[in-house]
Amino acid sequence: MKKYLLLSLFLVVLIAKNSYSKVEDRSVLVFAAASTANAVSEIAKVYEKQTKVRVKLSFASSSTLAKQIENGAPVDIFISANPEWLDYLKIEQNFARSKRIDLLGNKLVLIAPKESSVSINMGNVADFSETFSGQFAMGDSSHVPAGIYGKQALTNMGWWRNLSRRTVNALDTRIALTYVERGEADLGLVYQTDVLISDRVKVVGRIPASLHEPIIYPAAILNPGNGFARDFFAFLRTRTARKIFREFGFDQPETGFINREL
Fold this sequence. Notes:
With about 260 residues, this protein is of the alpha/beta class. The chain has helices at about 1-25, 35-50, 60-70, 85-95, 145-155, 160-165, 175-180, 190-195, 225-235, 240-245, and strands at about 25-35, 55-60, 75-80, 100-105, 110-115, 135-140, 165-170, 185-190, 200-205, 215-220.
């Protein structure tokens, strides 16, 4: 009799443990570029409300996230601010089953504190570094996508050599934005989407897209075995998600669009 009781107790514990695991497994872990934080967070809220699936989010520079994934972070979906860091993972980790799309686009702008009197005519400035005297904030051009694009543009304009001497390298564009908001940098270079979340800075110049490589945010499923990940990945391309991305200032490639509502 005691054996039967022990066996019954074991089965009850096992069933309870399995049920708990199933509840815990109703989740998706998304790593996404810092510049997408507000838009992706809003999309995740809508998705969670409609599906009761938890979307766990981690935002940082694409390079930082890629390194974490390389070191074994159990990520389901990765949204990078440029193709290179996703390419890097595909080569290093051999994600043969990854599904990938070009999800978003963006633009670069020059910003200054709201009270600043600086205004820059991109076509008439011979030396950008002479238009202001303080520090210039931007993403680190050695690995942060916005910094890489920015260096390309500023080099093509002939401004990089002098400007780089006063550049404050940030880990991502949101940090660069913060430097300008606080007055720790007189000017900065960020995405146009970053400006929309701040009332303490203003756009003083827009970088022509022809001066740098196209800004593309690719997204990929890194864990295709997670059905919730596949579903949230599809949700990112629905009308609902695209509307939210537009509200936060992102451009959107037509590829990968899904005409579906949950």
